[in-house]
């Protein structure tokens, strides 16, 4: 799982945005700037970018070229998103790491920021379940490498992949499967090795390629 050490908030506002101040309040190293200035900065590792929702960046039909260019440089999530204007499943497939909606309560925004900085995706469990259902029901031809990794996975590892794809954290997975968090970490290490994924995002991409059949598990409430 790729943890981020620094957060950049992109907004055209000159005064500190509420999201920037919330990040500061929980000790996140954060910098605020506008998109033009940001694009002049050199690319650095360990950086997560929060982009304020703008209809020029994202619509129900997909992401625009400007946002796609930004996503080629850094992992990106959208904050102050408008629920009626964004298809969250499209956002997942586009590679956005999460959506923080304009009407979120402050405690939810704080949870979202911590989750994203920890390297996890931030979407509702319903959205992630729908995405997983679409992936496992869409016919796809496996390439030899993916098929080999698929065959090497144990039944328990396949359960864990399904829960990871739905957005469950390690503690939630441990509770559902009645195992320790340490055991979950051990399973994830084995899963990453077998699938050649470096983090959960790459594991989701592997799942897209593999059309892996995952056993459904009870849902865990995470984001309303």
Number of helices: 11
Helix content: 40-55%
Strand content: 5-15%
Contiguous low-pLDDT stretches (5 residues minimum) are 212-224
The average pLDDT is 80
Over the alpha carbons, how many angstroms does the gyration radius reach?
18 Å
Question: Major sheet: size, sense and barrel closure?
Answer: 5 strands, parallel
Form type: globular
Task: Please provide a written account of the structure.
By secondary structure, the protein is of the alpha/beta class. The chain has helices at residues 18-25, 35-39, 65-73, 88-94, 106-117, 125-137, 144-152, 155-165, 170-177, 181-195, 200-210; strands at residues 6-10, 30-33, 47-52, 58-59, 62-63, 76-81, 99-101. It folds into 2 domains: 6-121, Rossmann fold; 129-210, Arc Repressor Mutant, subunit A, CATH 1.10.10.10. A 5-stranded parallel beta sheet has the order 2-1-3-6-7. Helix 4 crosses helix 6 and helix 8 (155-165) packs across helix 10. The radius of gyration is 18 Å and the shape is globular. It starts with 5 loop residues before the first strand and ends in a 14-residue tail after the last helix.
Topology of helices and strands:
Elements: E1 6-10, H1 18-25, E2 30-33, H2 35-39, E3 47-52, E4 58-59, E5 62-63, H3 65-73, E6 76-81, H4 88-94, E7 99-101, H5 106-117, H6 125-137, H7 144-152, H8 155-165, H9 170-177, H10 181-195, H11 200-210
Parallel strand pairs: 1-2, 1-3, 3-6, 6-7
Antiparallel strand pairs: 4-5
Helix pairs in contact: 4-6, 8-10, 9-10
């Amino acid at each position: 799982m790729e943890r981020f050490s620094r957060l950049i908030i992109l907004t055209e506002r000159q005064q500190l945005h509420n999201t920037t101040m919330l990040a500061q309040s929980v000790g996140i190293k954060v910098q605020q700037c506008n998109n033009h200035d940001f694009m002049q900065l050199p690319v650095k590792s360990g950086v997560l970018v929060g982009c304020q929702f703008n209809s020029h960046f994202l619509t129900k039909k997909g992401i625009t070229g400007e946002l796609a260019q930004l996503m080629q440089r850094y992992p990106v999530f959208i904050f102050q998103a408008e629920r009626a204007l964004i298809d969250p499943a499209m956002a997942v497939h586009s590679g956005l790491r999460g959506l923080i909606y304009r009407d979120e309560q402050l405690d939810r925004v704080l949870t979202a920021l911590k989750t994203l900085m920890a390297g996890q995706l931030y979407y509702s469990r319903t959205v992630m379940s729908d995405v997983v259902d679409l992936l496992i029901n869409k016919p796809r031809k496996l390439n030899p490498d993916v098929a080999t990794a698929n065959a090497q996975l144990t039944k328990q590892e396949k359960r864990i992949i399904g829960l990871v794809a739905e957005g469950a954290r390690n503690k939630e997975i441990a509770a559902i499967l009645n195992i320790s968090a340490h055991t979950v970490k051990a399973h994830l290490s084995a899963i990453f090795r077998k699938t050649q994924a470096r983090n959960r995002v790459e594991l989701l991409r592997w799942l897209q390629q593999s059309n892996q059949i995952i056993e459904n598990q009870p849902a865990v409430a995470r984001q309303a």
